[in-house]
Amino acid sequence: METGQRGFLDSEPLREADEDLASEVNFTDSIMTEEEREEIQQELTKLEDEINTLKQVLSSKEKQHAELKQKLGISPISELKNNFSKGWQDMQSSTAYKRTSETLSTAGQRTSAAFSTLGNVITRKFGDMRNSSSFKSFEEKVENTVSTIKTKVGGTGTGGSFEDVLSSAANASSQETPSNNLMDSSERPC
Questions:
Q1: pLDDT band at residue 138 using 50, 70 and 90 as cut-offs
Q2: Which GO terms describe its cellular component (predicted)?
Q3: Alpha carbon distances (Å) from 151 to 51, 158, 159
Q4: Which residues, in sequence order, are CB contacts of 92 under 8 Å at separation 6+?
């Protein structure tokens, strides 16, 4: 390949001599005159002075702003509360919030109705189960067994209902608390 036909990507990397040559070139000297350069430098200095003046004025205005707020009793916390309240009110008045609120309300009502229906179904099923012959047979067997046990343990007894038997058993067990005072105090080990 000849040097005249080489593309940009095919060029050789820069050498140190090329870098030195590029750093010595001053593009501003070749484009503008000394007068133009001084004029631009003066304009730059003037602009920097204006920027500094504006910064001082802004700082003074911010200080005055803070003093007036302090005199009115407006603290950063109260401003934050006001901004939060305003933001909350703006959000509540948005259509997206209203739609979401309505949707959640409807969903809550439907869920409540579903649980209510489920509770009614379960109550009805328990009622049906209690009235079934299987449950009545089981209840009779339990009562007979309890009567038999009560008769054997407590002497003569008249069976009674399941609830009566449970309460008498609870009373009997509470009266039969074992005593730990079996040993005389002189016989106890040290």
A1: confident
A2: cytoplasm
A3: 108, 8, 8
A4: 98
